[in-house]
Amino acid sequence: MQRDSRPSPRVVWRGRLYLAGLVLIVFTGALLRLRGLGARSLWLDEFCTWHVSRMPLGASLRWPPELSKPPLYQFCLRLLTPDPRPPEWLLRLPAAAFGTLVIAAGAWLGRICGGRRTALALAALLAANPLQFDYSQEARSYSLLVLGCALSITCWYRLVMQPSRRFAVLYAAATVMAIHAHYLATLTITAEVAWWLIVSRGGSRRQWMLPAVALGAAGALCTPIVIHVLWRRASMFEGLAWIPAATWSGAARILAKLSCGRAWAYIVLPVSMALWAWMSWRPRRRGVPAPSSARNAAAALLVLWLLSAWLGLLMISWVANPLLIARYALPAAVPAMLLPLLVAARLHRHAPLILAGVFLMITAPEWLRHGAEVSPGFRELVQYLNEHADPESSMVAILIENVTHPDWADMQRLGFDYYPLQRLPVCDLYLAAGAVERNRPVLADPRTLYIVVFLGDPLPLIQAAGRRTSAFRLDGQTYSQLLFTPYRLLQVAPIAGADEQ
C-alpha cells in the first residue's frame, strides 16, 4: 500500500498563515512607502536623477556629478515616462517599488536562514525601519542597492550550500543588478567571496565550480561599468569630497539607524553574536541546542556581510576617500536585523516574532509619524520668492561651492530648472577663493539680494562687499534666515540710497 505523500492539514494551514502574514506585512510596507510620495519637494540629489534621465543617454553616462552612481535607476525612469518634467511622485515611484520588494527579499533570506517565523519577523522590521522607507521615498538608487544585495546574498548562500544551475543564473542576475544600482555593492560581493572560501574548504568539485562560474559571469557582465569607473575615477571622487572624515562614533550612530535604534545596535546585536559563538563552540551546555552546520554557515555569512558593508566603509574612509554615510551602508541593515532573529530562533521557535514585536512597539511612534509632517523644501522656497520678492527691486543668487568643472555649478542650478521662478533674475555667487571679480557685479548690485544656500557660508563675502543681511518678517515673526530643508534662504539688504540714485 502506497503511503499518502500529501501534506497534513496542519502543515497546509501553517503555510497559508505564513503567506497571509507576509502579504499583510508587504502591503503595509508598501503603504508606508507610497504615503506622501510626492508631498516633499525634490532636493539636490533628486534633481540630478531627474536631469540625467532627461539627457541624451551618452551624455548622461559622462555627466560628472553623477559618475559616482551607476545608470540603472535612470534607465528605469526612462522606461517609466518620457515626460521632460515628471511629477515628484513619479520620479520616486521606482524607489518605492524597490523598497517594497526589499521586504519580500528579506523574508526569502530569513526563511532560508531561520524558518518562517524568522522570515516574518525580518520582513516586519524591514517594513517599519524608518531609514529603509526614507530611502524608498527618494529618487535615488539606494533601495535598489539593498534589493540587489539581499537577492545576491540569498542566491549565493543557496548556490554554495546546494549547488544548482538555476541559482547560478539567479545569482549572476542579482549581482549584476546590485552593481548597476551602486558600486558599493562590491562590499557585499567581497563578503560573499570571503565566506565561500571559508565554507568550501574540502567541499566537492561542484561546490567550487558552479559558484566560480556564476561569479565569473557576473564579473564579465559588469566589466563595461568597471572600465567606465576606472576611466573617470577622478571626477567620481570629486563628487564625494563633501563626505566628512569617518569616526568610530559616527559608525556606531549609523549602525543604530540601520537597525532598530541604539538598544538593538549596542545591546541586542553584540549579545546575539556572542551567544551564537557560545552555542557554536560549546554545544549542549545547559541544554542549549547546537546550531546546525547550515545555520552556522548562514550566521557566518551574515556576520561577514555586516562587517563588510558597514565597517568596510569605515576602513575605506580611513585608507582612501571618506565614504561612511548612512545611505552607503544601507545594505548592512539586513544582516544587522537578521542576526539577532537567527539566534532567537535557536532559543525558542516564537522568539523571533516576540523580539521583532517588542522593537516594533518601541519604534512605532517614529514610523507611524512618517509622512505625516512634511518640511518645506526647494519647492516652497521658490513659492516664497515668487510671492514675496519684487522683480523690479530684487534678484536671486545661488551660492556655488568650490567647484573645478562647469557641470558642478550647473548641478546646483537644477532646482530652478525644475521649479522655475517667475520674472525674477537669477545669478551665481561663487564661494571659491579668487572669485572676487566674478562676484563683484552681484554684490555691487543695489537691489535686494536673496541668496539660496545648500552648503557653505556666504557671510564673509557679503561683509567684505560692505553689505549686510536683513531679517525676514513672516506671520508676525522675525527670522534671520528661512530654512527650506536642506536649503537656507538669506536676504541681503539693498544698498542705501540706491532709490535716490
Tell me the distance between the termini: 110 Å
Strand-and-helix sequence, N→C? HHHHHHHHHHHHHHHHHHHEHHEHEHEEEE
Work out the helix count: 23
> What structural class do you assign from the helix and strand content?
alpha/beta
Q: Could you give a short account of the major beta sheet?
A: 5 strands, mixed
Describe the strand arrangement of the main beta sheet, using strand numbers: 2-1-3-7-6
Q: What radius of gyration results from the CA coordinates?
A: 26 Å
- Shape label: elongated
- Residue share in helix: 55-70%
Fold and architecture overview:
The protein has 501 residues and is α/β, with parallel strands linked by helices. Helices cover 62% and strands 7% of the residues. The chain is built from 23 helices and 7 strands. Strand 6 and strand 7 (487-492) form a beta hairpin. Helix 5 runs parallel beside helix 17, helix 8 packs antiparallel against helix 11 (205-221) and helix 14 packs across helix 15 (262-281). The chain is elongated. 39% of the residues are buried.
